[in-house]
Amino acid sequence: MSRDSSLDALTLDGFEEVQGGHWTLQNDGHSVVLSVGSGMSVSGGGLPAQYHTLQLHFHWGSPSTNGSEHTLDSRRFPMEMHVVNMKSTHPNVSAALDDPTGLAVLGIFIDVVYADNVHFSSISQKLSSVAHKGQEAKVKPFPLMNLLPRHNLSQYYRYHGSLTTPPCSQAVLWTVYEVPVYISWTQLAQFTSQIFSTEEDAEQVTPLQNNFRHIHPVFSREVSASRDARLLPGAAGRAGPPSVGLMLFVLLGLLSRAF
């Protein structure tokens, strides 16, 4: 891992505003997905273009296990949120998948405290309406910035990776934020215990748990720390990226990460 002083905070256009219309929350059997329509985009921070924000979704474990897709300092967090953005020059996601930098995904760790996150309630209060696969609910738009670590947006790690579900296309520029956001134990339990991967009338109702891809080898991937991110122990002063073991277990536990 090396520091890239050119990686400053991304420009998040529209994230502070309340968008018009309504958003749609859906249980697709693999995750809970919030489609956010149009009006928001990300750029800067070393990204090669402007990217339109499409949706966000979540990865979690179970009542007894953590479920973030990345790890930091070998720690796996209870949940991880991914904000998916598509390069503005592409008409759809299928076209973006043929572009090595077609998608830019923001990864945000989610940790747990005792108090509810009032901003997160816009989603968690709707989860009972999408408990089963195929169910949808309307969500009143809110400033998406409320779900991000707004005071630490210049602290992140960047690498080029892939989707974590088939076709696992190598088309994603990952921005993984160093500082987590927080929800309550009650809000976490709504995901790990009250969301199901099966339809409501299924003979056997199966909880949707551990919907994260396991750690993969880093191979030759370069991971860059942003200007304000902390360099992890043992990485400071290195001329090149650290060993695979260090990068794999101390930094982000990489290969492909999610969509």
Number of domains: 1
Order of helices and strands: EEEEEEEEEHEHEEEEHEH
Strand content: 25-35%
Shape annotation: globular
Mean pLDDT: 86
CATH level-1 class: Alpha Beta
Annotated CATH homologous superfamily: Alpha carbonic anhydrase
How would you characterize the largest beta sheet?
13 strands, mixed
User: How helix-rich are the residues, as a percent range?
Assistant: 10-25%
Which value, in Å, is the CA radius of gyration?
18 Å
CATH 2nd-level architecture: Roll
Poorly predicted residue ranges? 234-259
Terminus-to-terminus distance: 24 Å
Summed up, the helix count is 4
Structural class: mainly beta
Task: Briefly note the CATH topology name.
Answer: Carbonic Anhydrase II
Q: Please tally the β strands and state the result.
A: 15
Compile the SSE list and pairings.
Blueprint (H helix, E strand, L loop, with lengths): L1 E2 L7 E3 L9 E5 L4 E4 L5 E3 L7 E10 L10 E2 L2 E2 L2 E9 L5 H4 L6 E11 L7 H4 L11 E4 L16 E6 L10 E6 L3 E4 H10 L29 E2 L18 H8 L8
Parallel strand pairs: 1-15, 10-13, 10-14
Antiparallel strand pairs: 2-5, 3-4, 3-11, 4-6, 5-6, 6-9, 7-8, 9-10, 12-13, 12-15
Protein name: Carbonic anhydrase
GO molecular function, one term: zinc ion binding
EC number: 4.2.1.1
